[in-house]
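Risk register update: the risk of archive-format incompatibility is retired. Evidence:
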Amino acid sequence: MTDAELAAELAIEAGKILLEVRDTRMLEGKALGDAGDATANQFLCHTLRAARPDDGLLSEEEKDDTARCSKRRVWIIDPVDGTREYGEQRSDWAVHVGLSIDGEAHTGAVALPGLDGGIVLRTDHPVPLPEAAPVPRLVVSRTRPAKEAVEVCKAIGGQLVPMGSAGAKAMAVVRGEAEIYLHSGGQFEWDSCAPVAVAKAHGLHCSRIDGTPLIYNCEDTYLPDLLICRPEWAERVLNEVARLS
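Archived output:
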């Protein structure tokens, strides 16, 4: 099984587990989110360690072993990206299974189990980008939109689209529901590794908001900002961010 096939299979299966937890346990809100996180994390970590024992592993839900920093290949996972949305039984949450090779988001899959029928987007099965909308749409946090995203949206005459998890927002650009995902409010490597790998495979621009590369498997896992957008918007958005700063 290739790395991409493994990532997709794990993301799909973790999504099924999360739906089962949601549908069979009498839980809601934070309690449901915690139960889903723990159950999916146990499955993903156990399976990855068995399938790729020589690789490193970084999970939001595991104590970090920085010995991974000495490895070229490190799996970076988020069992439930958008725990709040999952706990509220919304659809805009995701499962991230990404593989960093030499610090690059190289391979991965993002599952969106909450959508009707469930969807998985993966690096080995890219599809053509849908036609862009005439007015650029920027996906932003539904609770705390980043200041830079709001200002860039005004500058380019765009439209804000509130949405939940980082994975859901990144995949909205891949799926043609938005043109730009600009985030500056703070994230960690597990929030973006798999989404960036998938977005790059689909031909999207992916970088920090100053245009520098996104680097993974760092000892400090904080990765405060990112830009995922259609390539035709990258230069304009980066210029607007630079102007704001």
